[in-house]
Structure formats: structure tokens, C-alpha cells
Amino acid sequence: MPAAHALMGLLARGERYGYQLRGELEEEFGPEWRIDFGQLYRQLASMTQKGWLRVRVAPGTRGPDRKLYALTPCGRSELRRWLRQPAAESVRGRDEFPVKLRLGVAARAPATGELVAERRRRLESQQQAERTRAARAQRDGDVGRWLLAETRRHQTEGALAALDSCAGIGRPRRKRSAAIPAAEPLLAIGSDDLVLDLIARQLTRQHPEIHFSANPVGSLAGLVALGEGRAHLAGIHLLDVDSGEYNVPFVKHLVPEEPVVLVNLAHREQGLMVAPGNPKGIRELRDLVRPGVELINRQRGAGTRLLLFQRLRQARIDPTSIRGYAREATTHAGVAAAIAAGSADVGPGIRAVAEAWGLEFLPLGYERYDLAIPRRIFDSARLRPLLELIHQPAFRRAAAAFSGYDVSHMSEIVAIH
Structural domain of residue 124, as residue ranges? Predict the structure, then answer.
């Protein structure tokens, strides 16, 4: 995109010298907007010819005279017209969106809210396309292509999360006849899970007005986010190694200030994922300490890691004696990809992901996966579509199709604390 409208936005504040414009352009909008003086003055000359700018010569105090540029009424009209248009696709790294957001808010442009809404729609579509590419790469066993798709997906999720800060700015005006009011984003932070991804897809399909995103950071980090008010719900599967109880002890300790409802989502089969053919002959946990066996683990705070630790403790195996125990991946698929790529021999994960990657699976047992939801969110209208979704027979059938998933208790309230 040419820098013309960005320059007009700067000139809307008042007259500027060329060198001032060049410095402010990069300072305001980032290094990708840097232009040299030759490009700048050609652009300013073109804008002057179109009638968008006027130029006057200011006498130099200690040197030659200098040109001062100002916006004309015609230029202001063109700037307002441009601010009303959707943001164009990025060209050579130059993204119109942050420029339009900055200038639109400053000018109180009425289209700024719709600009943010359109950006969200575009990013959500991009996110879904990246999920599709990652799934296709996973089916093909192409680890490099999967890593690229996952990297792009995380970048898109970061951009979506950044939009949350714009939620209260310049909301688009809606007609009184609009059937569905705008809804604030619903954010799940916690454990990585296939059914949670299914919820995101189905909610988007059934309720386009709802923006739901799931950020897989691990069960413990999800509860911390819930306690700090940074999430609306958290997917958790935390086994208390002393009591053998799932989730409740952790909710009591990490979210002590408000009631939390635990809603069951599924029971999942956990185990060890190994390469096709199991070339290292791994049959039981004690095989993990053999020379030449390389593990890749989940991150600290992940329920899958805690389950593995509990099983190792039951078997009286020192985790530090396992090569690779400290090596971490943040998702089940990340563990599977490392094994499929040959950089690890074994790692903990769920059966559904092992089968999706064509890996062999050594079961360790089933676990309970719950949604932790503050009571005030659980009782609110904004969560009702999600709760209705997980009651739908068609949704349950889709979730049950994941290998190693038992959804017979899906949507049941397990506990309130």
C-alpha cells in the first residue's frame, strides 16, 4: 500500500516539514513504513497534484527555505473516505489495519468499530484455514508443513487476542432490527483438547456472532488465568497425586475467591506415544530409563505431565533418570510431531492424537477432563450457547468419534466449589 493516506493522517494534525513526516511515519506505524526521502517527496508531489495537499515555503533560519505541507479540504475528504473503507490486504509488509485503527480512533471515525469487526472475521477465517492445513499435514505425516501451519496459527491467535483490547473502542452501529446483538469474545485458557477445538468450530458455525478462542497453555496456567480474571473458562485434567482426585483440589487452591462450576467434557485415554513399529521396543514405564531411549515431555503445569509423574512415582521410577524428561512441548500434537520427525522416541499424550499421527499407543488409563467455569459466567446468557451445544446429540456423536474419548458424562456438573 502507498503511504499517501498514512501521511494525510499525520498532516491532519497540522503542517509538517518533509523530514518531520518521514520520522513520524516510522515512529507511529512501525519500521515497515520507513521510506527514503526520494520516495517521500515523490509521494508528496503526487498528492499535491491531486489537490490533497497545499505547500508553502517557510524561510529557513540558518539555511535554505523549506517546504511546509498541509492538508486541503479535498485531502480531508479523501482521508475520511479512505477511513470508511475496509482495510486492504498487506502489501510488502505494510498493513493498513493499525494505521486505520490509529487514525480512525483519533478522528472518531464511525467506521472504526466495523473495521475491528471485519479484522476479526478475516483472522478467524485465516485461523480456520491454518487449522485445515495443519490437519492435512498431520494426515500426510509432513512434520515440517505441520510446524509451519502451527506457527502461522499461533501468530493468528496472537493477533486475535490483541483485538480484545479493541473491544470497547468504536463499536459499529447496528440497526435496531438486528436479530443478534454483538457478543464479547469468550476465552478459554487451559489444557489442550480436541473437543475444545470442536466447540470452537461448531460455535462459529452455529453462532457467527460469538467469538470463542481456546489458548492451550496447560491446566495449571489455565486455572491461574481463571483466578486472575483473564479467562472465562479453563479446560483442566489435574490429578492430585496424593488424594487421587481430579481437578477439585486444584480449583480450591488456585481460584479461592469465587465459586467455580466443574462441568465434565469427556474422559480421555492417556498413554505413551511411540514411533510406528515401536523400534525401541518400549512396552512399559521402566523401558523409559533404558539407554538410547529419548523422551519428549509436556510443559510444567500440563495435566498430562502430572499424570506421567504420578505413574512414574507409583512405579518408583526417578523422572530425572529418564533422558529427555525436561524437554517440553506445549501440545499433544507437538509431542507427536517430535516423535514422527524422529527427534524423540516416546512421549505422553492421548490416543486420539497418536492415531491421527500414525503413531503406536501404550495406554496408561483414562482421565477426567472438565471445564472450570466461574459461577457468574456459568449463569450468564453469554455462556448459554456453549452449554446448549455440548448437550446436542450431534455434537456428542462428533466428540465420541475421537478415539479414546468417552463422552457419556459430557455436560454433567461434577462439582461446585
Answer: 112-167
